[in-house]
Amino acid sequence: MKKHLFLLTFILLSASYSFSQTSTEQEIKKLSMDKWQWMADKDVSKLEELFDDKAKFVHMSGSWKTDRELEIIETGSIWYKNAEVHDTAVEISGNTAVVWNRITLTAHVRGSDVENEFTVTEVYQKQGEDWKMLVFTFSSVRDTHEIEH
């Protein structure tokens, strides 16, 4: 009987631990998806809250910090019209979350709509009650690329 009670307690504790991890992973995944919509909407005020002041952004055409990324979005020099997310993986370590999104991005750049396949890496850090984005990197990939879970 004690053996069964121990096993049941272990299972309940494991399930509770898994649920809390899953809940945080879901929160980060939702935040990442919301970010794509905010970028499409050019909602700089929400993005400004999300991006850490010292965040780094790496694109096909260069890398820059938060102020420049917000300016690019606000002016529409790159308009992230739609990110079709095909796959997402999230890993949490302490107060750091890493998100990998495999996407097809439709963007308006230099007067034309362009479509590219990317794996986007996002790094978030829990700062107080909020998650702040520290890193946002686009890696060009083939459409057959898969994210290892």
Automatic annotation (TrEMBL):
Leader sequence segment: 1-20
Keyword annotations of the record: Signal
Residue stretches making up the DUF4440 domain: 30-133
UniProt xrefs under InterPro entries: DUF4440, NTF2-like_dom_sf
Domain of life of the organism encoding this protein: Bacteria
Keyword Manganese: no
Name assigned to this protein: DUF4440 domain-containing protein
Lineage of source species: Bacteria, Pseudomonadati, Bacteroidota, Cytophagia, Cytophagales
